[in-house]
User: Fold this.
Amino acid sequence: MSIAKQIILDELREQSQVEPVEDIIFWALEHYANSKYKSTTGAVGAYCIKQRILEAEKKESENK
Assistant:
């Protein structure tokens, strides 16, 4: 496992930031997907992950 992945997983478990870590990650994905680099493969990946999260949250709220 990469160091970055391990740190992200640790942060998610520990939740030691002021804002929820999953929100911070989502905002970073959203920012990168909408940045001046939006035609890069990284920004496309960020957009796809962001959309997947939004769709799953919508589906979850519809099932409640």
